[in-house]
Design goal:
Blueprint lengths: L2 H12 L3 E7 L5 E6 L7 H18 L5 E4 L4 H16 L4 E10 L5 E5 L8 E5 L6 H14 L3 E9 L10 H9 L3 E6 H8 L3 E2 L2 E2 L3 H14 L3
Parallel strand pairs: 3-4, 3-6, 6-7, 7-8
Antiparallel strand pairs: 1-2, 4-5, 9-10
Length: about 220
């Protein structure tokens, strides 16, 4: 596993964005772990998150020149990712995001930020991948407005689960849009690295929790 993924797994724990226990998800499933992206709610945390986005973008889309974040959660993500990637590559990386409602005065339009050009390699960043419907809509919107294609979509954590239809939502998205999906880390990578490992003097993922997640994935995983 790449070193940035190992560091990221520990970062998720320290930021309390990844928690272990018993959680009821929006889907109604009872999960032994929970990912909460709203925990990245301070300057230092969102700055550090941006560095991990940048590392994953460099690995998967080294020619990326522009980063898109779907409103609303994606707005701080695209800003932090573009800032970190610009610093890492020592070159200007742009960002843009959409408005939920089209503005009818001032600069107007549906998009805010650096508008994409045909030559741009555009990556969408978001927190998680659920049913993929909003991301499909975002891809269609950008293609219609700007005539450009996304190089890929990057999310923080891949839960590697079936959707409500029992299908792989990521595979469906890739088939519909032709756009690949990447993650900074997958839940299996998290478990493999954190199992019985001390983080700041505490083991947060012991053998019992590891087995609970394994059983959960045996029932709900698609990959």
């Amino acid at each position: 596993m790449q070193s940035y993924k190992k560091e990221f797994a520990e970062f998720l724990v320290r930021a309390e964005a990844l928690q272990f226990g018993e959680f009821t998800l929006k889907s109604g499933r009872n999960s032994p772990y929970f990912f909460n992206s709203s925990k990245f709610n301070t300057g230092p945390l969102i700055e550090e998150l941006g560095r991990y986005y940048a590392s994953a973008i460099e690995e998967n889309a080294p020619n990326c020149s522009l980063i898109f974040g779907p409103a609303y959660k994606g707005i701080p993500l695209c800003v932090s990712a573009a800032t970190a990637l610009s610093s890492s590559l020592n070159q200007n990386i742009g960002y843009f995001f959409n408005r939920k409602e089209k503005k009818t005065h001032g600069d107007q339009g549906s998009l805010v930020g650096q508008l994409p050009l045909e030559k741009d390699s555009v990556v969408m960043v978001d927190d998680v991948f659920t049913d993929g419907l909003t991301k499909i809509e975002s891809v269609a919107m950008i293609r219609e407005l700007c005539g450009v294609k996304f190089t890929g979509v990057l999310v923080v954590l891949d839960r590697m689960e079936k959707n409500s239809l029992g299908r792989d939502a990521i595979a469906d998205f890739e088939q519909i849009t032709g756009v690949p999906v990447w993650s900074i880390i997958t839940i299996r990578e998290v478990c493999d690295y954190l199992k019985n490992r001390e983080i700041d003097g505490h083991v947060v993922l012991d053998e019992d929790i590891f087995l609970k997640i394994e059983h959960y994935l045996e029932e709900h995983s698609v990959r």
